[in-house]
Design goal:
This protein has about 350 residues and is of the alpha+beta class. The protein contains twelve helices and ten strands.
């Protein structure tokens, strides 16, 4: 375990390197920070930190920079994330409150995260496997043509046209609508097939074929929409950090193009609390020079999806974690109210 003084020296090195982009020397540390010890003691502490792998010297005559291990300890020992200012919180709320549907919510969230953190933002669409049914609407468009509208608790709306073999009366339609909603509203999508399997048998013989057709379309909709989707934005922000990537930025960009990789990264995040993966903690080779900060969001206590940012390991961790957490909280509120 590091002494508290050496932890202070490590914190100061991280803060200075993130802020200045320059390797940090002992003289600069003692001038900028009230460490309460002599420059010689700071040099000894830096030598010890280097021996233990928390900092490294990029060039012979240069100061020191944090390693992945150093950033990890810095994040683990942080007293808390940096809270957003009142104007920042108000701006987030105003920007997200203008969203008209789920696609707009996700799109606005991506743009907002990229602007707030100046990193690459990644937002996963709410997963239907974790969603519940808010309402099912059935509308008659013609005697033998219906529209099915499925609304989730996360604000997702799915519409399907249904062509029936025979006309379906308004009374039967109202009856089916009521029975469907009584069985599946508030229930998870994964439970729906079992909840409706015996529904056709409760209708008159002449209506059973149409009821079965409606249920078939409903279940097909669930299967089609369980594919995980995400939106990414702010990739151009990485060009500001070209010198933070050892050889080239290309492997990072290639990794970001693979949505399967990003979905896996998001899937590894905790549902509650901010998850930070630093450098080589990211299994994908193209992301070993980056840090990924993620958190779950949802309309209740349970996360229905994840969001986060990808950037160089030299990032403002307290600020980034605070922004990611705040945005997730506002998105959750919007889904709860939609």
């Amino acid at each position: 375990m590091l002494s508290e003084r050496r932890l202070e020296v490590l914190r100061a090195i991280v803060q200075d390197y993130v802020g200045t982009e320059e390797p940090v020397g002992s003289k600069a540390l003692t001038e900028r920070h009230k460490l309460g010890v002599s420059p010689a003691t700071v040099r000894n502490d830096m030598a010890a930190l280097e021996d233990e792998g928390f900092i490294a010297q990029p060039h012979t005559s240069a100061g020191r920079i944090p390693t992945d291990k150093g950033y990890r300890l810095f994040v683990d020992k942080m007293a808390g994330v940096k809270p957003l200012s009142v104007p920042e919180r108000r701006a987030i709320q105003n920007f997200l409150d203008g969203a008209v549907d789920l696609d707009d919510v996700v799109g606005r969230t991506v743009r907002l995260l990229a602007q707030l953190t100046r990193q690459v933002a990644v937002v996963q669409y709410p997963s239907l496997t974790r969603s519940t049914v808010r309402h099912v609407e059935l509308l008659a468009l013609a005697p033998a043509r219906l529209m099915l509208v499925l609304i989730t608790d996360t604000g997702r709306v799915e519409q399907r046209l249904i062509d029936c073999q025979t006309p379906f009366g308004e009374t039967s339609l109202a009856d089916l609508r009521a029975r469907l909603n009584s069985r599946i509203v508030g229930r998870r999508f994964t439970d729906v097939p079992q909840l409706v399997q015996d529904l056709p048998e409760s209708f008159e013989q002449e209506d059973r074929a149409t009821v079965s057709t409606v249920l078939s379309v409903l279940l097909e909709t669930l299967v089609e929409e369980t594919e995980e989707r995400l939106m990414i934005g702010g990739t151009a922000n990485l060009t500001r950090f070209g010198h933070d990537f050892p050889l080239t930025i290309r492997p990072v960009l290639e990794a970001l193009e693979e949505h399967v990789v990003l979905l896996k990264l998001l899937g590894e995040a905790n549902d509650s609390g901010v998850t930070v993966r630093i450098g080589h903690e990211n299994a994908h080779e193209g992301l070993t020079s980056t840090s990924v900060v993620t958190v779950g969001y949802g309309s209740g206590d349970e996360a229905v999806a994840k969001l986060g940012v990808v950037g160089p390991t030299r990032m403002d961790y307290p600020g980034t974690m605070g922004a990611v957490r705040a945005v997730a909280r506002y998105v959750g509120q919007i889904l709860a109210e939609s």
